[in-house]
Amino acid sequence: MSAEFLDFILEVVISYLVPILELIGVFIVAYGTIKSFIKFIRSGLNSDDTRVKIDLAETLALSLEFKMAGEILKTVVSHTIEELSILGAVIVLRALLTFLIHWELKMERQTEHAEREHAKIHEKAK
C-alpha cells in the first residue's frame, strides 16, 4: 500500500471518529447535567451539597476527556502550521479546564471527607 492511500484511509477514519467523540462528550454533559440538577432539586436546592458539585465536576471532566481525544486525533490530519497552532491552543485550554476541574474535585472531596469526620466525632461526643 502506498503512503498516500494510508493517509487517505487515516483521514477518512478520523473524519468519522472526531465528531463521534465530540458527540459522546456532548451526551455526557447533557446526561450528567440533568442528573446533577435532579440531585440538586432533591437536596432541597442546597448549594452546599458537595455530592452534587462532585458529580457535576466528574461529568464535565469526563466530557472534556472525550472532546480532547477528538482534538488530538485532529492533529494527525492537520497539514498546516496554522491548523496545528489552533488545535494546540484548544488542547491547552481544554487541558487547563480539566486540570481546574480535577483540582476542584479534590477540594470538594476533602471538604466532604472533613464534614463526615466532623459528624462522626460530633456523634461520638453525644
From TrEMBL:
Pfam family, one: DUF1622
PANTHER family: SLL0939 PROTEIN
Signal peptide: none
Source taxon at top rank: Bacteria
Keywords: Membrane, Transmembrane, Transmembrane helix
Name of the protein: DUF1622 domain-containing protein
Transmembrane portions of the chain: 12-34, 84-103
InterPro entries (alphabetical): DUF1622
